């Protein structure tokens, strides 16, 4: 069937031998034309009870107790390992091969073992690398502590030595026979009372260093001495580890961004164990890393003495260790990179296999075992045209699995509504998605997507009409279409992917924008004499303002579109506004009539005569008695050149229908025609409201009286049940039916007025687009051109380009798109489209891979 109605569907049942179940589901997944049902959820209550008593269903089992739960768990674990590999490859910047080399078929059990070994090896590599990196970062900080603390002790030792020498020289110069001996005794006593100070060295975050020092000072009541020195280069904290972010250069490359922190080296001198305990707790609270620095004065002197001679050779040993660790880390990363490259060569193949197998067993879990536990029973929807293809796939599956018994394929008959399936291509799929965003069509309901292919871009173009802007849109759409093979295989951003998916919609919108732009004769708001010279010319030289009062018609009417002489004249806005406003009404009434006509085709297809006589006919009469008549008056006024006031005609058609029209009369018998149309519109309202509920009640009573009747053939009963009106499947409540019909009538009557007025947005949006384009051209580009300065001209051109692209080609495009969307969803589709169906979602490996991506 074509795109106008969804494909004919039927419910099929497959009885699959256990030995060929895997091959059968796999081949059906390759075909992608069966939507499997979970028999437990979709069977009727009585049928489920019977099957449960017979042991055909496993409804009492939890998902982990059902058949194939172990296989699903196994492949879920394999998928987790593959996700782990993918994360590791992204961190290492390794890109899996999109088209792996053809290799031998992989056994699933062997792949499970291999993935486990690779995961264990990668985990071990990561653990070793983390340990080495932690040790390396610690040694880097330890080296910084040695350098900074060594510099501090070195300077302190130098000052102490100088002071000692100064004291000794003073004592030697001043010593005499008169020097009292008691002073030496006091010195010896004071030296014996000296207190030994301890110290702690380490690093703390620079941003916390002042708070750190202040809290230590308060906690010890000032009985400490703290020295800090800033580290010149940021370091990686060994405790928190490497803080890694991944920046994406392109879809194929990743860069490693390591977050470094700035720290200060501190040395804290204290006295007593209590003070030491407090300092250690504060260091732990602030995340300060402590490193040992020898407290042996002799070793310190030795280290400091060496430091005075050379450039801190005390850190040479640490530097050697750092070099060893760096070599080990590089070797580990190289080995890991090689392993990940090996995994990347087969990653796509492994992922496809695991995803496919997992989806196969998920589907098999939906099937039920028969009483003999030798067959699986499956039910699902499939298109009628696919019957032969499915049977061929079942035969191949039975042959390849060496099954002695083939799969039994049979069609079931049910009253359940089938899913909706439209066969679309890359051109029509985007337009169908626009319709499906409102609601999926009911089974074999008239599909508005057929008309949306033309009407949607046309309504957009009425609001966007400018053939210069249309050419820009056309170029953008052609870029996506020409590169669609390359772009379809890449990961795009959300906005880019959405734009790429609607490339053919943009193409159609561009074509129609060029067409309406030629009608409006606007190229970036500038008119051109493309098809012929203007039909008008100036009467004399005083006509330079190009007003219509100073123009005379010298040539035939401009053959296509608006005559360019109207642009720039004083009567441009009145003329173009009148034209576009009336044109919008004509388009709106035509599209609403199309929607009502489609409701007639729906009623005919579903054999619903009530909707034809009491919905389609009165709706056509009401709409066209008022707004169809208005459209006729507009066309007559254009053809005759009459000066009749259509506002006055329509208003007094209701207020004073019997008054004479006078100068507003456009044709003979107009007053009589208006009276007939007004009466028809008034009669059509109760026509829609009253008869249908009573007739539905009568039909319901007739069905109740026909409880016993001859059995129909299964095909006829299926068609009648599917095509039956929804009221026949429910308990009939006359009050509810009547209220529903009253709401529907009021909605249509009021909607006919509001929907027609809503189409005036076509005129309003086009007016805004045209005026904005004119402002950018005249107040930016022409203004810059008038200065005769190359710099001002370049700046003006740049501003004009950015304003045109940003406002007119992006914001105005989005605005016109949304308004066209609203006109289709509300004003057009509510006349006939129910949209309460559900989409056909077959089991397909292609869709499984798309969901994974």
Automatic annotation (TrEMBL):
Keyword line: Coiled coil, Hydrogen ion transport, Ion transport, Membrane, Transmembrane, Transmembrane helix, Transport
Alphabetical GO biological process terms: vacuolar acidification
Subcellular location: Membrane
Membrane-protein topology: Multi-pass membrane protein
Coiled coil: 101-135
Any Pfam family matching the protein: V_ATPase_I
Transmembrane segments: 458-482, 503-520, 583-601, 613-636, 672-690, 785-811
GO cellular component entries: vacuolar proton-transporting V-type ATPase, V0 domain
UniProt main location, coarse: membrane
GO MF annotations in UniProt: ATPase binding; proton-transporting ATPase activity, rotational mechanism
PANTHER family in the cross-refs: V-TYPE PROTON ATPASE SUBUNIT A3 (PTHR11629:SF112), VACUOLAR PROTON ATPASES (PTHR11629)
Free-text function comment from the UniProt entry: Essential component of the vacuolar proton pump (V-ATPase), a multimeric enzyme that catalyzes the translocation of protons across the membranes. Required for assembly and activity of the V-ATPase.
Family to which this protein belongs: Belongs to the V-ATPase 116 kDa subunit family.
Name of the protein in its database record: V-type proton ATPase subunit a
Organism listed in the record: Salix dunnii
């Amino acid at each position: 069937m074509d795109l106008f109605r969804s494909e004919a569907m039927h419910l099929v049942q497959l009885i699959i031998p256990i030995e060929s179940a895997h091959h059968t589901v796999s081949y059906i997944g390759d075909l992608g034309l069966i939507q499997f049902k979970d028999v437990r959820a979709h069977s009727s209550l009585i049928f489920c009870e019977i099957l449960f008593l017979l042991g055909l269903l496993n409804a009492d089992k939890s998902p982990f107790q059902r058949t194939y739960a172990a296989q699903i768990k196994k492949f879920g674990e394999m998928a987790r390992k593959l996700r782990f590999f993918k994360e590791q490859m992204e961190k290492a910047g390794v890109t899996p091969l999109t088209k792996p080399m053809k290799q031998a078929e992989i056994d699933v059990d062997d792949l499970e073992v291999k993935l486990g070994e690779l995961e264990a090896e990668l985990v071990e590599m990561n653990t070793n690398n983390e340990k080495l990196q932690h040790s390396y970062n610690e040694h880097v900080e330890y080296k910084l502590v040695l350098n900074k603390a060594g510099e501090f002790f070195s300077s302190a030792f130098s000052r102490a030595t100088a002071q000692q020498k100064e004291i000794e020289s003073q004592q030697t110069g001043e010593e005499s026979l008169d020097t009292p001996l008691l002073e030496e005794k006091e010195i010896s006593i004071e030296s014996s009372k000296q207190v030994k100070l301890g110290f702690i060295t380490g690093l703390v975050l620079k941003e916390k260093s002042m708070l750190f020092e202040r809290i230590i000072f308060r906690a010890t009541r000032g009985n400490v001495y703290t020295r800090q020195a800033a580290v010149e280069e940021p370091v990686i904290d060994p405790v928190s580890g490497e803080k890694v972010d991944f920046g994406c250069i392109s879809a194929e490359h990743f860069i490693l961004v390591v977050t470094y922190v700035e720290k200060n080296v501190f040395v804290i001198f204290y006295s007593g164990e209590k003070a030491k305990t407090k300092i250690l707790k504060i260091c732990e609270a602030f995340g300060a890393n402590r490193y040992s620095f020898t407290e042996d004065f002799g070793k310190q002197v030795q280290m400091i003495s060496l430091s005075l001679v050379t450039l801190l050779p005390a850190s040479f040993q640490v530097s050697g260790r750092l070099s060893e660790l760096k070599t080990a880390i590089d070797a580990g990363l190289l080995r890991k990179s090689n392993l990940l490259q090996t995994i990347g060569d087969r990653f796509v193949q492994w992922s496809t296999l695991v995803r496919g197998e997992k989806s196969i067993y998920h589907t098999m879990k939906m099937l039920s075992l028969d009483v003999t536990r030798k067959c699986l029973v499956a039910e699902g929807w499939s298109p009628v045209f696919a019957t032969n293809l499915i049977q061929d796939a079942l035969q191949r599956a039975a042959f390849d699995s060496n099954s002695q018994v083939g799969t039994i394929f049979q069609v079931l008959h049910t009253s359940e509504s089938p899913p909706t399936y439209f066969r679309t291509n890359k051109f029509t799929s985007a337009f169908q998605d626009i319709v499906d965003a409102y609601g999926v069509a009911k089974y074999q309901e008239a599909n508005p997507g057929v008309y949306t292919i033309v009407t949607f871009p046309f309504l957009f173009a009425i609001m966007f009409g400018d053939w210069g802007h249309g050419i820009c849109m056309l170029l953008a759409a052609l870029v996506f279409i020409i590169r669609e093979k390359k772009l379809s295989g890449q990961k795009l951003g959300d906005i880019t992917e959405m734009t790429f998916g609607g490339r053919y919609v943009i193409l159609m919108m561009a074509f129609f924008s060029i067409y309406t732009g030629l009608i409006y004769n606007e190229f970036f708001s500038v008119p051109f004499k493309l098809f012929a010279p203007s039909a008008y010319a100036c009467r004399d030289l005083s006509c330079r303002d190009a007003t219509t009062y100073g123009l005379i018609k010298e040539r035939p009417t401009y053959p296509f579109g608006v005559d360019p002489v109207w642009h720039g004249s004083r009567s441009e806005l009145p003329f173009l506004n009148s034209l576009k406003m009336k044109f919008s009404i004509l388009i709106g009434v035509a599209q609403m009539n199309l929607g009502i006509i489609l409701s007639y085709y729906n009623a005919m297809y579903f054999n619903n005569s009530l909707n034809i006589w009491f919905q389609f006919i009165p709706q056509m009469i009401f709409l066209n008695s008022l707004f169809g008549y208005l459209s006729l008056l507009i066309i007559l006024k254009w053809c005759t050149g009459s000066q009749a006031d259509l506002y006055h005609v329509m208003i007094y058609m209701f207020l004073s229908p019997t008054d004479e029209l006078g100068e507003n009369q456009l044709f003979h018998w107009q007053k009589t025609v208006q009276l007939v149309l007004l009466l028809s519109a008034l009669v059509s309202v109760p026509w829609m409201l009253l008869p249908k509920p009573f007739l539905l009640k009568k039909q319901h009573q007739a069905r109740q009286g026909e409880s016993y009747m001859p059995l129909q053939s299964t095909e006829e009963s299926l068609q009648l049940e599917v095509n039956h009106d929804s009221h026949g499947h429910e308990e009939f409540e006359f009050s509810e039916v009547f209220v529903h019909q009253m709401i529907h009538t009021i909605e249509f009557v009021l909607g006919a007025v509001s929907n027609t007025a809503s189409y005036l947005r076509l005129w309003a949006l086009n007016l805004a687009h045209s005026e904005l384009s004119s402002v950018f051209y005249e107040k930016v580009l022409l203004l810059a051109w008038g200065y005769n300065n190359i710099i001002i001209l370049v700046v003006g051109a740049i501003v004009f380009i950015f304003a045109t692209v940003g406002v007119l080609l992006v914001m105005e495009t989005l605005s016109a798109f949304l308004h066209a969307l609203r006109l289709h969803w509300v004003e057009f589709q509510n006349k006939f489209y129910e949209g309460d169906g559900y989409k056909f979602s077959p089991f397909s490996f292609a869709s499984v891979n798309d969901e994974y991506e």
